[in-house]
Amino acid sequence: MRKPEELINEALKKGQSTLSEYGSKQILAYFGIPVCREAIAYNVDSAAPEAERIGFPIALKACGAGLTHKTELGGVVLNIRSQKELKGEGERLLGILGCEALLVQEMVHGHRELTCGLSRDRLFGPCVMFGLGGVLTEILEDVIFRLAPITPSVAREMVQDIRSRRILEAVRGEAAVDIEVLAKTLVTLGEIALQHEEIAEIDINPLRIRPDGKPVSVDALVVVKAI
Fold first, then answer.
1. For each of the chain's 227 residues, which pLDDT tens digit applies?
2. Which domain range does residue 78 map to?
3. Which of 6, 83, 117, 201 has the fewest Cβ atoms nearer than 10 Å?
């Protein structure tokens, strides 16, 4: 696993303001934030064994530092079930402008999606964000902000302060959300903000909840800036 400093400095030297999804999640994983199982592949042939290792069905994504809206570009394919399908979709994704590699990813089950991240306000400084995720983030705008750093107790309060907090309860055979893992993720985001001033933003969306209640980062974006 590469260190955050290496990933950040590499991006800045290239004049990039964002890390790829893979690079973004490497930073999250380095700090212990749960991320889904995935592998990077630079051609279809190298993607094939990674898919076998992770296990079908898989998700396949176009990956590149400039691809911040992959879904709109047709850069995300879910439930790929065979090597034949992988080959066809992989070749298509590699043809998308800005695609530098293929991201081979486990299919994360679970119906609930949350979001969390950090941003830097010009007046108040680094802020940690938590709220309802997925396509509902922009529609319902059910999010909470707190100034970093935050304590575990403040993180737990944030989780309970969203209007849609019932989503955290057990529902339709799925366990209640693991609040302690969720709170630890929010605390860690605040710590990242203090340790790395070059990180301007982190957006984890969706943070999907597995049926056992464990949160996992399915998509992420890290925005960087020179200081």
1. 899 999 999 999 999 999 999 999 999 999 999 999 999 999 999 999 999 999 999 999 999 999 988 988 999 999 999 999 999 999 999 999 999 999 999 999 999 999 999 999 999 999 999 999 987 777 778 999 999 999 999 999 999 999 999 999 999 899 999 999 999 999 999 999 999 999 999 999 999 999 999 999 999 999 999 88
2. 38-106
3. 6
Q: Which residues have CB under 8 Å from 84's CB, separation 6+? A: none
Long-range contacts formed by 126-129: CB under 8 A, 24+ apart: 126/190, 126/193, 126/194, 128/155, 128/158, 128/186, 128/189, 128/190, 128/193
Which strand (E) or helix (H) includes residue 45?
Answer: helix 44-54
Do 128 and 212 reside in the same domain of the chain? Answer: yes
User: Do 102 and 10 belong together in one domain?
Assistant: no
Q: What is the CATH classification number for the domain harbouring 168?
A: 3.30.470.20
**Among 84, 106, 128, which residue terminates a domain?**
106
**Helix/strand/coil percent split, the chain, to 5:** 35, 30, 35
